[in-house]
Design goal:
The chain is mostly helical. Helix content is 73%, strand content 4%. The strands form two sheets. A three-stranded mixed sheet has the order 4-3-5. The chain has a two-stranded antiparallel sheet with strand order 1-2. Helix 3 runs antiparallel to helix 5. Keywords: G-protein coupled receptor, Membrane, Olfaction, Receptor, Sensory transduction, Transducer, Transmembrane, Transmembrane helix. Its main location: membrane. It is found in: Membrane.
């Protein structure tokens, strides 16, 4: 790998430079405070949720185990992306080593599909609870959660790991400045002198296959849930059934809406500022993470009770 140099001889390099909003320095000033607050909120809320589920025996159920997995994924994604972005904003620490860059790329490409797959497992949990309530205790068990977690880890690692591997094996013979706040695959691979068609096509196929199929199956499950709920005739039963999966559906909307906005903005990048896709890419790693535990904490009575018990215990 080579670094651009004024001399005629190329030199080996060991780092990239993240060119994060340097053309629009005012973006860094007004983004640093809300981004840091969102980061603290995400870390605090997810940590509180994990501790509450761990300490409260009433929450030792499959649905809350899956929610714990979601919180863990959110914490790792936030720690992978946001501290480095804030370091750039506050201290202009734009350099990132090759190994750190490709590790960040691996985690981002791996954990985001893991989140969508976790949402799918949670949607299946809600589908069984609403549409087949008599079978729920025998279908949604601790063994089901264990198998779901193994599947989530294995599927996404198998399909996502080639993305940073392909990018790391490209030949970098010129510039080492990444026009992004993070080591996104497309932003890094464009610096290579090699043909990156395989890299780009593989990422596109994996992204649409994994996340796209997950979202389709999730919304199909909610169509079946809605159909089953509308057939309930007992007074108040439909409202109660919808409330049990309302929190989950809101989380999916947070996840999918920001993702879809980012995709369409990236497709129309000639018509929007190049900073917009970069900003959305960063926010996608922190906004859902900050809102997920809050939505569940507000809408789920068992979690609210567990948090109050935790606060009284600390008090």
């Amino acid at each position: 790998m080579l670094l651009y140099s004024n001399s005629s001889l190329p030199t080996e390099v060991s780092e990239f430079l993240l060119n994060c909003f340097t053309r629009s320095p005012t973006w860094q000033h007004w983004l640093s405070l809300p981004l840091s607050l969102l980061f603290l909120l995400a870390m605090g809320a997810n940590t509180t949720l994990l501790i509450t589920i761990w300490l409260e025996d009433a929450l030792h159920q499959p649905m809350y185990y899956l929610l714990s997995l979601l919180s863990l994924l959110d914490i790792v994604l936030c720690l992978t992306v946001i501290p480095k972005v804030l370091a750039i904003f506050w201290f202009d620490l734009r350099s990132i080593s090759f190994s750190a860059c490709f590790l960040q790329m691996f985690i981002m490409n791996n954990f985001l599909p893991m989140e969508s797959c976790t949402f799918l497992a949670m949607a299946y949990d809600r589908y069984v609870a609403i549409c087949k309530p008599l079978h729920y205790p025998s279908v949604i068990t601790d063994q089901f959660v264990a198998k779901a977690i193994v599947f989530i880890l294995a599927r996404n690692t198998f399909f996502s790991a080639p993305i940073p591997i392909l990018s790391a094996h490209l030949h970098y013979c010129g510039k080492n400045i990444i026009e992004n706040c993070i080591c996104a695959n497309l932003s890094v691979s464009k610096l290579s002198c090699d043909n990156v068609a395989l890299n780009r096509i593989y990422q596109l196929i994996v992204a649409w296959t994994l996340i796209g199929s997950d979202l389709i199956l999730i919304f199909l499950s909610y169509i079946f849930i809605l159909h089953a709920v509308l057939r309930l005739k007992a007074k108040g039963t439909a409202a109660k059934a919808l409330s049990t999966c309302g929190s989950h559906f809101i989380l999916i909307l947070f996840f999918s809406t920001i993702l879809l906005v980012f995709v369409f903005t990236h497709m129309a990048k000639k018509k929007v500022s190049p900073n917009i896709p970069i900003l959305l890419n960063v926010l996608h790693h922190v906004i859902p993470a900050a809102l997920n535990p809050i939505v569940y904490g507000v809408r789920t009575q068992e979690i609210k009770q567990g948090i109050w018990k935790l606060l009284r215990r600390d008090g």
